[in-house]
Amino acid sequence: MGLDAFVCCRCLEDGCAAPPPVAARHDPEDGVVAEQSSLSSNAFEDFEHWLATACEHPDMRVASVHVGNWGLLSQFRTALQRRGDWGNVDALVASIPSGNGGSTTATAASEALAQLEAFASSSFRWTAPKLIDATTKEVVGEGVGEPDGLFVFAGSLEGGLDLHGRFFVRQQQTGALLFRAATFTQELIADSDGSPVAATLVSDAQSLTWPIVLTAGTGDGEMDQLLYPARLRVVFEVEGPMSFERIVSPLRAVLTAAVVHDHPVHWT
Question: What is the pLDDT confidence band of residue 149, given thresholds at 50, 70 and 90?
Fold first, then answer.
């Protein structure tokens, strides 16, 4: 769950790969593919076997990484847009897609890589409020570039974090405050299949039932799972570029590979 990326090797055009069973080419979106748009099942199996074993690089990919889940990517984009000392990062922001699919050319990757290194080497720091699972410490939410620290939207309701370290829910049109607390519990409401579909938030004398379930990921990359925290609280955390090494490292790997091998980064 999230964004993956890969860069193809140059073995096909450099003549280092075993001859393909059918004509093959580099597709700007999908990497190494068969020239024919449709193959018989046997021909397809032969091509897939060749792709996996044609050279020293599995599937003819010189780099293949899991970049991160969408929540972490949103936090990374927000960090890039802060007024730090890393300068212009427009090429880096533009290179990272907001959905699965697409590619970044080697030329664009070179500019994005330089901006990534400027960000990663910065000593700039900032403090940000985050809503966390009080038990696991996993992040449930934070303002990700939306005005007023908002990150939850449910019909006429919206929720977010204020600068004083409190989670709030309010009416979208009127701004009327319905719930606000620094610590609170979440009582799940399930449908007939047992799946959580709503929740009641409780703190001291306050309570609010709304059609949202606040969730947290495990942070395990490709094995991300949704957790339903029963106790939540807002904390302030000091962050900096070092907080995003989980994303910086895989991005550096594929952007560097794109530059070195003069092939695009494929996002999946």
Answer: confident
Tell me the pairing of strands 150-154 and 157-161. Answer: antiparallel
pLDDT of the residue at 222: 42
Cα–Cα distance for residue pair 108/266, rounded to 1 Å: 13
Q: Is the pTM of this model over 0.85?
A: no
Mean per-residue pLDDT of the chain:
91
In the predicted model, is pLDDT for residue 37 greater than 90?
no
Residue boundaries of the structural domains of the chain: 69-125+244-267, 126-239
SS in 3 state form for the chain?
A: CCEEEEEECCCCCCCCCCCCCCCEEEECCCEEEECCCCCCHHHHHHHHHHHHHCCCCHHHEEEEEEEECHHHHHHHHHHHCCCCCCCCCHHHHHHCCCCCCCEECHHHHHHHHHHHHHHHCCCCCEEEEEEEECCCCCEEECCCCCHHHEEEEECCEEEEECCCCCEEEEECCCCCEEEEECEEEEEEEECCCCCEEEEEEEECCEEEEECCCCCEECCCHHHCCEECCCEEEEEEEEECHHHHHHHHHHHHHHHHHHHHHCCCEEEC
Q: Residue 232 forms beta bridges with which residues?
A: 133, 184
End-to-end Cα distance, the chain: 10
